[in-house]
Structure formats: C-alpha cells, structure tokens
Amino acid sequence: MGSQWGRDKVHIKAKSEGYRSRASYKLIEIQRRFGIIRRSDNVIDLGAAPGSWLQVIRTLTDGRVLGVDLSIIPPIDGVETIEGDLTDPQIHTRVKEMLRIVNVVVSDASPKLSGQRSYDQARAIALGEEALTFACNVLKPGGNFVVKSFQGTDFSKLFNETKQHFFSVKTYVTKATRKGSTELYIIAKNFVA
Ligand SMILES: C[S@@+](CC[C@H](N)C(=O)[O-])C[C@H]1O[C@@H](n2cnc3c(N)ncnc32)[C@H](O)[C@@H]1O
Questions:
Q1: How far is the CA of 98 from the centre of ligand 1 (A)?
Q2: Which of 2-6, 58-62, 151-155 has the highest average model confidence (pLDDT)?
Q3: Which member of 39, 72, 92, 103 has the greatest number of CB atoms within 10 A?
C-alpha cells in the first residue's frame, strides 16, 4: 500500500466500489474495530468533502447524517450538508438547530498542506482541537468522537484534552494510512461532558 502501485490499486478499488476516495477504507476499518456508530445514531462528519466518509456513514446508521466542509460536498442521497468552517461558532449553532440530538462526531478535517512538516502538523493538531471543541459543544452524553491527528509535539495536548471529556480514549493508525505518514486517529467513546 505504501508504493505508488499500491496507492493506485487502492484508488482503483475505491472507485470501482463507488467511493469518492480511498479515505472510505479508514472509516470502515475504524468502525469494524471500535464500533463507534450504532444503527440509530445521528452523525456529524467534519471536513467531509468530497464525501467518502459520508457514503460509509450513510450505510451504518438509519439516523441523520450531516457533513460540514469549507468546500461544497457533492450531493449524496439521505445526507445533509453545510458549506462552512467547523471553527465558526455560527456553524455550531446551525448544526444544533438542524440536529437536536448528536450521537457521534467524526472529523477527518485537515488544513491545506504547505509541505513544511512540523508547521503542517501543528496546524492539523490545532484543527483537531477545534473539532474537539465542536464535539463537546454538540454531543449528547454517552456520544462518540473520532478525530484525525498527527504524531508531533502538540499531539499529547490534544490527546490529554480529549481524555478530559470521554470515558475511553485510544489512538489508532489505520492500515489504509500511507506508509511514512504520521497520521493517526483518536477514538474517543462515551462523552462525559
Ligand atoms: C482529507 S479531506 C476529508 C476527506 C473526507 N473524509 C472523505 O472521506 O471524503 C479534509 C477536508 O477537511 C476540510 N477542512 C479543512 N479545514 C476545515 C475547516 N476549518 N472547516 C471545515 N472543513 C475543513 C477540507 O476542505 C477537506 O475537504
């Protein structure tokens, strides 16, 4: 999977299975391992464009599914979308008006990369902190949260902050993550406010 050929194969597999990107396999893997989404859950996906996680989430729950992204998310049957910034308090309010009960928040959001590794990691972790704030603002007690992050100097701050709000918090590197990447996911279950 780390080679160019491997990347192409996963990309081709994703397209042939109707997914918008290979990212879908990361969420499928997280769900198989941690069971974060239940059949009746209302789920919010932050940083959701182009929408492959939304496609997966739609198959996992009969509840409402809402995607938020700075970019327009091309339509998916049975999925609501908002074009907006997850760090904007007005977007938090809008989401709460749309979904009165939120059981799960997932975030695969990442900023545009500059190519400067430590700078990019710091910005990505800061966005993860914003996603945590969002989740704490909208989640129902007992809810679950998944956020993309990166190993780096600020990672433990995000991890420890997440631990203050959830009963169980773990990290997970998906098999679908490219070799050499420092990407990992924080899997937080049972929101305690
Ligand atoms: C890796 S992509 C997400 C892929 C998505 N999970 C999927 O499966 O299709 C990261 C996304 O984060 C979004 N993003 C970055 N900063 C954001 C912000 N402040 N608010 C909302 N979305 C943001 C980007 O626009 C981009 O679409």
A1: 20
A2: 58-62
A3: 103
Domain spans of the chain? Answer: 22-191
* Tokens describing residue 156: 């433990």
Å from CA of 43 to ligand 1 middle: 16
Looking at residue 4, what is its pLDDT?
A: 44
Model pTM above 0.90:
yes
The finding on whether 21 has its CB within 6 A of some atom of ligand 1 is yes
> 185, exposed or middle or buried, with CB in 10 Å at 0-12, 13-18, 19+?
buried
Under CATH, what is the fold of the domain 22-191? Answer: Rossmann fold (3.40.50)
Which residues are known to be catalytic? 148
**153-178 average pLDDT score:** 94
- Is ligand 1 within 6 A of the CB of residue 128? no
Distance 49 CA to ligand 1 centre (A): 6
pLDDT of residue 97: 95
Atom of ligand 1 nearest to the CA of 24: 8
**Average pLDDT, rounded, for the chain:** 93
Q: Is 30 in the pocket of ligand 1 (CB under 6 A)?
A: no
